[in-house]
Write a structure and sequence with these properties.
218 residues, alpha/beta, Rossmann fold
Length: 218
């Protein structure tokens, strides 16, 4: 299905019945990364899986900023008149979820933030260096986004009272201290570092999050 938000055409798929939950993917991905998780969530929830602007079947954007993506998420909630949906965001999706919640403190009932960072320096140096080399070669605007943004501060986290599950892999490309910082400054956060998992292994084409979510979303 398609919806126009903030002058941008956004594609999404709706699955299941029950309390609503929004899924937001990472940089360069599409909603299809959640293909193994959606069937589990849709047993008890109405799942809205989005292609963020410039990804998948959504319209290409002239430029990319996390604040714009966050505004799209909020506009989606209001346009569909969703009643306090839960939110799950992976990587860039987690970043946009944090920004959306700081802008609209009562937007979500619960949040699950996976592999997010507060600034580019939250990425391990080797990863930033690799992304910088790729950008020099390809001039990809989505790579530029990761190198220049986000810039989320402690205050913006402190005003988010939404119960939040902060998740990362023990082998993540995000610095462990960055993940811990997010959990520290969110007033109502639970931290889970998953042993043996990398940045995407527990999310992309995986249902490994299902047991964690079952208890948290209940």
């Amino acid at each position: 299905m398609y919806i126009q938000l903030n002058g941008q055409v956004i594609y999404y798929e709706r699955t299941g019945e029950g309390s609503p939950i929004i899924l937001a993917h990472g940089n360069g991905d599409t909603h299809k990364i959640f293909d193994n998780l959606i069937p589990e969530l849709s047993k008890k929830h109405t799942v809205y899986a989005l292609d963020t602007r410039g990804h998948g079947e959504s319209a290409t954007a002239e430029e990319y900023h996390y604040n714009d993506m966050a505004a799209d998420i909020a506009a989606f909630v209001y346009a569909l008149e969703l009643e306090k949906p839960a939110f799950l965001g992976f990587s860039d999706g987690g970043i946009t979820g944090l920004i959306a919640a700081s802008m609209h403190p009562s937007l979500f009932s619960r949040m699950v933030i996976c592999g997010a960072n507060l600034s580019p320096k939250g990425l391990k140096f080797s990863e930033r260096f690799s992304f910088r080399l790729q950008y020099i070669k390809h001039k990809d605007k989505l790579l530029a986004l990761m190198l220049k943004e986000p810039h989320i501060n402690k205050y913006e986290l402190s005003i988010i009272s939404t119960p939040t599950l902060v998740v990362a892999g023990s082998k993540d490309i995000i610095k462990k201290k960055e993940t811990k910082k997010i959990a520290k400054y969110l007033p109502n956060a639970t931290l889970r570092i998953l042993p043996g998992e990398n940045h995407s292994s527990y999310v992309v084409h995986s249902a490994k999050l299902a047991p964690l979510l079952a208890g948290f979303l209940r």
